[in-house]
Amino acid sequence: MASSSSYNSPCAACKLLRRKCMPGCIFAPYFPPEEPQKFVNVHKIFGASNVTKLLNELLPHQREDAVNSLAFEAEARVRDPVYGCVGAISFLQRQVQGLQKELDAANADLIRYACNEIPTGLPAAPGTSSVQPLTPRNRPAEFNRRIGNEGGGFYQPPGAFPLPYSFPWNDNSSGGMNDGGEGGM
């Protein structure tokens, strides 16, 4: 829990709302005077009255997590008013998908090199290679574990779960979350 306000300094919430910070102030443990922007964002997005109601409905041990979640969502909404946390999550998902593709390429190279270095029991005829290329028929079964049956899917390691849905904003190929706010999604 964050430090409670001292007698001289009201909590960030009471200071912004221009009211006297009472000893039992529900905001004081979560919005210390050293972090005024935290409450400014939460108040701007959710409203002080709604936050008060929410905190009063929760058990005391749940309040800190709730305030941290509200503060995170509020900051995300201030930075990206349209998508908020979803925009941040989709950005991170695109980043994970890019890294997954890089990992898949490295795994494919590793499997190809490992399969090409396995000696065969039969001697090769002069002028021919004993190394077989990795084709869909002679690839290891683990290599063929893909999300889709066509080649568009990516390698799905054992135990991983595919995403149940995709976001429409994942289709753009830009790296940033915002491309200047110029529509055209």
Automatic annotation (TrEMBL):
Keywords: Coiled coil. Residues 89-116 form a coiled coil. The lineage of its organism: Eukaryota, Viridiplantae, Streptophyta, Embryophyta, Tracheophyta. It comes from the Eukaryota. InterPro entries: LOB (IPR004883). Belongs to the LOB domain-containing protein family. The gene is LOC111290184. This is Protein LATERAL ORGAN BOUNDARIES-like. Residues 9-110 form the LOB domain. It comes from Durio zibethinus (Durian).
